[in-house]
Amino acid sequence: MMDECDVTRLAAELAPAAALLREVKLTSNITKAAAELGIPQPTASRRLAALGDALGTPLTVPNGRGIRLTRAGLLLADAAEQAIGVLGQGVRRVREEIDPESGHVALGFLHLLGRSLVPGLLRDFRAGHPRTRFSLVQGSRQSIVDRLTSGDIDLALVAPLPAGPSLDSVVVTDQELFVAVPEDHPLAARPTVELSELSSEAFVMLEHGYGLRQITDDLCAEAGFTPTVAFEGQESDTVRGLVAAGLGVALLPAFEPHPPSGVVEIPLAPRVTREIGLVWPSDRPLPPAVAAFREFVRNRTSGDHSLPLGGDHSLPLGGAGRRTRSDSPQAAHSLPLNGRRRP
Predict the structure, then answer these.
(1) What segment(s) does the record annotate as region Disordered (predicted)?
(2) Phi-psi region of 285 (alpha: psi -120 to 50; beta: other; left: phi over 0)
């Protein structure tokens, strides 16, 4: 049986081969893996063989013209991948500790937020931090949250806000949702619509994994019905196009400066909003540049949901405020992201 000293010794032997194991996992080819690391192929083969001998089991087996990792090799490659990620974060923190202004932020966000909210935040932050670099990642809510949890991105702007002990968040803004209907729809001339009135309608929705899909499903359930889904898409513009073609109705933020041709947006009664928030991992330290951007956003919101968000894209940050409809009878009501009405 292997004791703790043996484990420590073998872990030390694994360290030089960690990057090699990761490349072999990615390429299934020892020659390509060696070339990626800039070492001779025979050297790479000897390292893997020596490590397998030390562990008492081979790490690779032939697979056609390439190789594949054994079960033991895969286990070690997964551990090596995690270790390299942790070391990379450490190197990054050291570099940014020396020069915080030259840091890098990987920001994930929903497609709908890429027209106004994200550009406005980046513009205003970089006015005071011109050397900070950003990598921008767009996707569904679920994919963004998964990448945040795994460490692929540093911060995320999503709705609804995810729950979990390893994530913290702050609400950035509220965004009103409307019923989008074809312009010749019987409801198109109505000043407001109650969600229960849509129980017999065909819906055009975003796919599962998108925040608006979850919110729509929850709202309909609260109204006492399960929506009939006629079409599913991955982009709100596609959803609007299907609505304009008369193929269904949808719950969407307003499209600014006005709805596209063939679509009418009707406020819900009572008024419905979703909360958009900034999310970050609570179980690992943030590099200085990431922490600086998080604090910038927190200071801008000040806990009052004050950052404007003009439907899909129009109102820039620092403008006259978020969209409201104070002249509508439903303006005194809203719906937070958990699908429960509040006064």
Answers:
(1) 302-343
(2) beta
